[in-house]
């Protein structure tokens, strides 16, 4: 197996991970800059990578995202703040909901 023109030695020490593509697998592209962004925690990068693999126009409620990814409220708030501070997430709110309720608009972009 070649990676960047260097031989990878297979051993029990480090081993080599090979990705198996199952028949029901769906996959997307994640920008390397997002995965290597040292300003983001590893769990933040994982949530962002998951979002990055979704098709354009994909929508999910914050409630559903938290449930699906097993992220609690405190952790979500921290992740959202990290993504926002780094320019990946843009949040705004306006009183346009029923009865003048505040409605959040949250946009994720995998490149800041």
Give a short summary of the structure.
The protein is of the alpha+beta class. The protein has four helices and four strands, in the order ββααααββ.
Describe this structure in words.
- Helices cover 32% and strands 14% of the residues.
- It has helices spanning 32-35, 42-52, 62-69, 73-85, and strands spanning 2-3, 6-7, 89-94, 103-108.
- It is of the alpha+beta class and 112 residues long.
- A two-stranded antiparallel ribbon has the order 1-2.
- Helix 2 (42-52) packs across helix 4 (73-85).
Can you give keywords for this protein?
14% strand; two-stranded antiparallel sheet; 112 residues; globular; alpha+beta; single chain; 4 strands; 4 helices
Specify the structural class: alpha+beta
Q: What proportion strand?
A: 5-15%
**Largest beta sheet: what is the strand line-up?**
1-2
Gyration radius from CA atoms, angstroms: 18 Å
Mean pLDDT: 84
Approximate shape? globular
Q: How far apart are the first and last residues' alpha carbons, in Å? A: 34 Å
Biggest pleated-sheet summary? 2 strands, antiparallel
Oligomer: single chain
Helix content: 25-40%
Number of strands: 4
SSE order: EEHHHHEE
Number of helices: 4
Q: Outline the low-pLDDT stretches.
A: none
């Amino acid at each position: 197996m070649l990676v960047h023109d260097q031989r990878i030695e297979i051993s029990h020490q480090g081993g080599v991970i090979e990705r198996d593509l199952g028949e029901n697998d769906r996959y997307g592209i994640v920008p390397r800059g997002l995965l290597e962004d040292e300003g983001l925690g590893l769990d933040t990068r994982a949530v962002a990578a998951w979002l990055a693999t979704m098709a354009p126009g994909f929508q999910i409620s914050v409630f559903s995202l938290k449930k699906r990814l097993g992220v609690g409220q405190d952790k979500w708030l921290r992740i959202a703040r990290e993504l926002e501070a780094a320019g990946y997430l843009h949040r705004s709110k306006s009183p346009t909901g029923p009865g003048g309720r505040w409605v959040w608009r949250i946009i994720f972009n995998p490149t800041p």
